[in-house]
Design a protein that fits this description.
The chain has about 130 residues and is of the alpha+beta class. The protein is built from six helices and three strands. The chain folds into two domains: about 5-50, no CATH class; about 60-125, Ribosomal Protein L30, Chain: A. About 55% of the residues lie in helices and about 15% in strands. A three-stranded antiparallel β-sheet has the order 2-1-3, covered by helices on one side. Mean pLDDT is about 80; it is low at about 40-50.
């Protein structure tokens, strides 16, 4: 691999999960691609052709904050503010009044990043 690619790979390794999710969204927008496309829809279509259920893979998700331990409240509040872009007052209201939906209609990549970040801060979440 050339030096340019090695440098890019090293920079990617230093990203947080949320930054990586934002990078994916920016790449999708800039280049007009959809990174959520995988082999699974092809397999679902094939299963439908030979008697399978034919149901489609879920592409949009929502994440809810379900439990906030009192000793982890500040760390979780910081993550909620970062994820939602809300102010301190609005984020505190979410953290204090669980269960609450944080985000809706987001991709699998972004949901995974948010879920991991919240769980690392000590929160319990539900993904639908």
């Amino acid at each position: 691999m050339n030096d340019k690619l090695t440098t890019i790979i090293e920079q990617l390794k230093s990203l947080t999960l949320l930054e990586a999710a934002e990078l994916v969204k920016e790449i999708e927008t800039t280049f007009g691609v959809d990174t959520s496309i995988s082999a699974a829809p092809v397999m679902v279509a094939a299963a439908g052709a030979d008697g399978g259920s034919g149901s489609e893979e879920q592409t949009e998700f929502e994440i809810s904050l379900t439990e906030v331990p009192s000793d982890k409240k500040i760390a979780i509040l910081k993550v909620v503010r970062n994820v939602t872009g809300l102010g301190l007052k609005e984020s505190k209201e979410i953290v204090d009044n669980v269960p609450k939906i944080l985000k809706e209609g987001i991709s699998k990549v972004e949901i995974d990043a948010i879920q991991k970040e919240l769980e690392e801060a000590g929160a319990k979440v539900a993904v639908k």
